[in-house]
Specification:
alpha/beta, Rossmann fold, 7-stranded mixed beta sheet
Length: 465
């Protein structure tokens, strides 16, 4: 008997295969789990904050995208090295990997036909995809063609971005998204996203970090923001406040796309996120409500907001809530644009209405029209649910793959960090991961050197390796 899939069961990752080729999402999930992910690390990962951040990001994304992540080291003593990140439950690198669902092993080889990720000073035999960085600049591609960069530790977000871009290549090859995947080189500068090959793409070292943040929306994007914030090198994390705003509960499909979620996570997303952050030393404050036209920031709350909404009405209302600066991103949710990221800051030369279009009440609901088209023309939807209403609910769900949120978070949080480091900032950026083999990013620069934000308190960034 074929048990119907409901919208609360459908994997947002497997919806990509469902919508592209009419694949059974259950079978697509089994194929992902059979593929798995292999990561090979060099001995120098044991001593590096940023390489460990890249490794744990790759493990987290690998477990979510492929069900398992095996980490290979050529020397077993790497596993007993201290975990340099403030993952307070994990004293050793072995423990940190295991708690994320990964498996640390001594090198035993990987299937010769299968691409894998390499980090650090390993000499990378076979179909290795090197993830490397220098300052704020990231490079990912075949290890035989991509030399290891200088890996100067200017910004830890480069480690997260390198891991996420490497995962995007592994996934794109696996899913048949691009024939060039795992055979090309991708570049992204978090300092100059519009000019990754420019002389200043490497950027400058972090000196200070914001002392408080407000994060709105704790789904795919919002949790990716929090993962990125937790990787920043605060000297005293207990002096940092993160305000969390959401009223939604964890649903089963969120486990694969939420950076902070583990099997068994349940309850309000604010509570889950707060526990995760507080375990890592941060202060949290919860707003368990929706943003509406009456929402206003109080004088004691953070002056900058990171927004991860999927609704333009909420963006409009947040723009009127008296934040000094809002950093917002949105992701595509369909086959043609699931790896597309749109970023905006507010205030912006354009109005909120120009940035985030809201259809008038009598306008056609294009999302509903697209869902009806999918449900009617993709035969697989007929097999998943006999009822038209159920098919429409399934078809109306967005595609979401967690490495896209991780890359978006690197862009959003980098833009907010540059308000303190004085780097170049942008009003608008649009990028598609698939296009990062070329220039890949279109943007409008706001400032060559960003003026200070009124009321933004700073905390010292400690030097990292």
């Amino acid at each position: 008997m074929n048990i119907p899939i409901t919208s609360d069961d459908l994997s947002r990752i497997d919806k990509l295969s469902l919508d592209r080729e009419g694949a059974d999402p259950r079978e697509a999930g089994r194929r992902r789990a059979a593929r798995g992910l292999d990561i090979v690390i060099g001995n120098d990962v044991a001593a590096s904050w940023i390489l460990q951040l890249a490794l744990l990001t790759a493990v987290n994304l690998g477990v979510k995208c492929f069900g398992r992540a095996k980490v290979h080291a050529r020397a077993s003593d790497v596993w007993s090295a201290p975990c340099r990140l403030p993952w307070s439950e994990s004293r050793t690198l072995r423990d940190a990997i295991s708690k994320l669902g990964g498996t640390p092993v001594v090198w035993g080889g990987v299937p010769p036909e299968q691409a894998f990720v390499v980090l650090g000073d390993d000499y990378a035999e076979g179909r290795a995809i090197r993830a490397t960085y220098d300052g704020w600049l990231i490079s990912v591609g075949p290890a035989r063609e991509v030399p290891r960069m200088r890996e100067r530790p200017y910004c830890p977000l480069a480690g997260i971005g390198a891991a996420a871009l490497a995962m995007s290549e592994i996934f794109a090859e696996f899913a048949g998204i691009s024939v060039a995947a795992a055979r090309r080189t991708l570049h992204l500068s978090l300092w100059r996203p519009d000019a990754p090959k420019s002389e200043d793409a490497v950027g400058e070292p972090l000196g200070e970090l914001p002392g408080s943040w407000a994060v709105f929306g704790l789904g795919h994007l919002g949790q990716a923001y929090l993962w990125a914030l937790a990787g920043l090198p605060y000297e005293l994390r207990e002096d940092v406040l993160i305000l969390l705003c959401d009223d939604d509960r964890v649903a089963p499909p969120n486990i694969e796309t939420g950076a902070l979620l583990a099997p068994g996570s349940r309850g309000l997303k604010t509570r889950v996120a707060a526990e995760w952050l507080e375990t890592r030393g941060f202060q949290t404050q919860l707003l368990e409500r929706r943003v509406d036209e009456n929402f206003r920031r109080t004088q004691k709350e953070p002056v900058i907001a990171l927004a991860g909404f999927d609704d333009n009405h909420a963006r409009h209302w947040l723009s009127e809530a008296r934040f000094e600066r809002i950093f917002d991103s949105g992701l595509g949710g369909e086959v043609a644009n699931f790896d597309t990221i749109a970023f905006h800051t507010f205030p912006n030369p354009r109005t909120a209405g120009e940035l985030w279009l809201v259809a008038p009440p009598d306008a056609p609901d294009f999302r509903a029209v697209r869902a009806q088209h999918l449900a009617k023309n993709n035969a697989r939807y007929q097999a998943l649910d006999a009822e038209e209403c159920g098919r429409l609910l399934l078809a109306g769900q967005s595609i979401a793959v967690p490495f896209v949120g991780a890359i978006a978070a690197c862009v959003v949080v980098s833009e907010s960090l540059k308000t303190l480091s004085g780097g170049p900032t942008y009003y608008d950026l649009t990028l598609r991961i698939e296009s990062l083999a070329g220039e890949g990013v279109v943007g409008r620069m706001a400032h060559d050197r960003t003026p200070p934000i009124r009321g933004l308190s700073a905390r010292r960034a400690k030097p990292v390796t």
